[in-house]
């Protein structure tokens, strides 16, 4: 089992992105894409990690899914408030899947962990997964609670084959999981 490294995730973005675009331009394009008959995903992430977000979106969109990102939502208030929290709760409930982009920064974020709690309440265990992304030579010590969630990983024996592994050891191909 290989956790996806930050450099590997960035490689997915770079393979699908036009270099003349900024990360924000690329993210806005994702928002404008068709949503017709696609599985929807609430992608929980740390807001100041736009490069990781853009890379994760590029990676997941290869599977033909629609991704919801809260700060690209025109319905969000300009200033963070209780209205923001209620809107996020609504969107977690509306989207079929909940994936949290687990970087070291996101794991230490209060909002990230708050979203994870709501994702857990709405989607556990069939429609929630961790997408762990680590910098090389880092680990997730102190966040052992993430072990109760299914997680996305790349096969060591078959590169570019991705799976969702459940805490009980069951496996499902990422494409099949996203469509379930």
Can you describe what's shown?
Helix 1 packs across helix 3 (50-61) and helix 2 (23-32) packs across helix 3 (50-61). The chain contains seven helices and eight strands. The longest helix has 14 residues, at 110-123. The protein is α/β, with parallel strands linked by helices and 180 residues long. The protein starts with a strand and ends with a helix. A five-stranded parallel sheet has the order 1-5-4-2-3, sandwiched between helices. A three-stranded antiparallel sheet has the order 6-7-8.
Please supply descriptive tags for the structure shown above.
7 helices; alpha/beta; five-stranded parallel β-sheet; 180 residues; three-stranded antiparallel β-sheet
Quick summary of this structure?
With 180 residues, the protein is of the alpha/beta class. 39% of the residues lie in helices and 19% in strands.
Largest sheet features: 5 strands, parallel
Physical arrangement of strands within the biggest beta sheet: 1-5-4-2-3
> What characteristic shape results from the CA principal axes?
globular
Number of helices: 7
Which class do the helix and strand fractions yield? Answer: alpha/beta
Helix content: 25-40%
Number of distinct beta strands:
8
Query: Unreliable stretches, pLDDT < 50, 5 or more residues?
Result: none
- In round numbers, the mean pLDDT is 87
Measured by DSSP, the beta-strand proportion falls in 15-25%
What is the distance, rounded to the nearest whole angstrom, between the alpha carbons of the first and last residues? 22 Å
The run of helices and strands is: EHHEHEHEHHEEEEH
Which value, in Å, is the CA radius of gyration?
Answer: 15 Å
């Amino acid at each position: 089992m290989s956790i996806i490294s930050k450099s590997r995730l960035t490689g997915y973005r770079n393979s699908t992105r036009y270099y003349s675009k900024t990360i924000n331009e690329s993210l806005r394009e994702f928002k404008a894409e068709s949503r017709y008959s696609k599985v929807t995903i609430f992608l929980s992430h740390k807001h100041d990690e736009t490069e990781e977000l853009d890379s994760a979106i590029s990676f997941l969109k290869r599977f033909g899914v629609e991704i919801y990102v809260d700060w690209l939502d025109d319905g969000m208030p300009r200033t963070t408030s209780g209205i923001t929290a209620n809107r996020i709760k609504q969107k977690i409930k509306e989207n079929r899947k909940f994936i949290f982009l687990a970087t070291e920064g996101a794991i230490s974020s209060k909002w990230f962990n708050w979203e994870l709690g709501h994702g857990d309440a709405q989607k556990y265990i069939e429609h929630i997964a961790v997408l762990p992304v680590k910098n090389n030579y880092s680990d997730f010590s102190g966040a052992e609670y993430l072990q109760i969630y299914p997680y996305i990983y790349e096969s060591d024996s078959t590169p570019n084959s991705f799976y969702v592994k459940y805490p009980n050891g069951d496996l499902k191909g990422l494409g099949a999981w996203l469509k379930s």
